[in-house]
Acetylornithine deacetylase ArgE (Celeribacter indicus), 385 residues
Amino acid sequence: MTDLTRCRGILRDLVAFDTVSSRSNLAATGYIADRLEAAGARVELLPDESGSKANLFATLGPDRDGGLMLSGHTDVVPVADQDWSSDPFTLTERDGRLYGRGTCDMKGFIAACLASLDTLAAAARDRPIHFAFTHDEEVGCLGARRLVEVLRHRGTRPAMALIGEPTGMRVIDGHKGCCEYSVTFTGRAGHGSAPGHGVNAIEYATRYVARLLELREALIARRPDGSRFDPPHTTINIGALHGGHAHNVIAGEARLDWEMRPVVPEDTDFVNGALAEFVGSELLPQMRRAAAEAGIRTEVIGEVAGLVPRAENAARDLLFRLTGADCAGRVPFGTEAGLFQQIGMSAAICGPGSIDQAHKPDEYVSLDQLAQAIGMLKRLGARHG
């Protein structure tokens, strides 16, 4: 059996597990754990608080500091309201492509890792090779955030992380972070005929939005040309504004959902600092002069660091040697790579499939891309040993 044939069979099994983020990933994680243990890996399952989800961390080779970590996530996005040509949880092959939910994002990479275990196990005699397969990446990198806290407090940890998100097998060393917030504005409800007798929460929410739009423009000017990467600046998006009941009612509550995609951590500090000053010195005092019970509450849904391009990056340089590439790209979408970078690991991204196919109906990965991923892992085994 060829490695590609083995990979296709493993991917068929992985796609059959419905690991949409709202559901358990334990069956899929158990399947992966069995294959890793059969190859001689030491496997840990790290459950979340609910017990219905788990990260998997496994090691081939010696129990010591350093080594390379191959990383991916087991959850997938929903298929609801998508028009698929075939069952999204049954792997279907057409014209050299494998269709199914998660084929490119990112069960294809996990399958390539599992199909290459013989080579990787033989190569890990002197230096460890680690595997990190997480839950809930698609809803805020919840699993990876838990995993980095585990790794942070251990005496040993991997030195490098290779994240197999779909890049068309291009080497990527930089991407935006993702910070998501929900802001609740509490005012005083009343009759629309007397606006001055109430505090309209929607009006204050729109003033907050206006400040966000000012900051969005400031971010464009903030990045000097020499420090930009593609995309060239931190972005802000207004996702949703909820509030009000009728034309003639003063809205007593409103909620704003927004996100920021920072290219560097300093931009996050800049925006959050400017908002705190605006709310504390201007917006909230005005609301409370009209109604003592008025308030503004910010909920942090998630703050995931981006991957910051660095002159020295051992993981990127290793990928250059494995793929033959001589330069790295940058992408706007986020991954778990920045979280690993934050705890001192060098990190880079390279995986089969195209992000253009992710999250869509008829998601697919090509057999050619899987073959390239397997080839990269085979070369890793040869170099690692």
